[in-house]
Amino acid sequence: MIPSSAPAIIGALAGRARRRIRAHFFALHAVTAEEAVPFVPQRPIEQRQFERMQRAGIIRQAGRGQYWFDLVAWQKDQDRTRAFLVPIVIALCVLAAGLITLLY
């Protein structure tokens, strides 16, 4: 059975949508409530990621249809993600090294 690549594709599309959203706010320097700008997601995946970023507090609403990008919340989200993934990657590397050693 060939493993499905769908989760990897979905993850890549979600990451791309988050980068596009972030780029929109950075390009317009909308990083404070006073500099809020409108944003309308162009694709369903952008809509889902935009809503996820709002729930996480990364995208904040300053007024009707006006949003801004909270850099502090974004950094905290990045730190949480790294804190979760780094131990997993280390464990996988140690496991791979152990298997290579055993099979050598």
Helix content: 55-70%
The beta-strand count equals 3
Q: How would you sum up the global shape? A: elongated
Low-confidence stretches: none
Number of distinct helices:
3
What is the CA-atom radius of gyration, in angstroms?
18 Å
User: How much of the sequence is in beta strands?
Assistant: 5-15%
From the N-terminal CA to the C-terminal CA, the straight-line distance is 28 Å
Average of per-residue pLDDT values:
92
What does this structure look like?
By secondary structure, the chain is mainly α. It is built from three helices and three strands; from the N terminus they run H-E-H-E-E-H. It has a domain at 6-73. Helix content is 64%, strand content 11%. A three-stranded antiparallel β-sheet has the order 1-3-2. Strand 2 and strand 3 form a beta hairpin. Helix 1 (6-27) packs across helix 2. The protein starts with 5 loop residues before the first helix and ends with a helix.
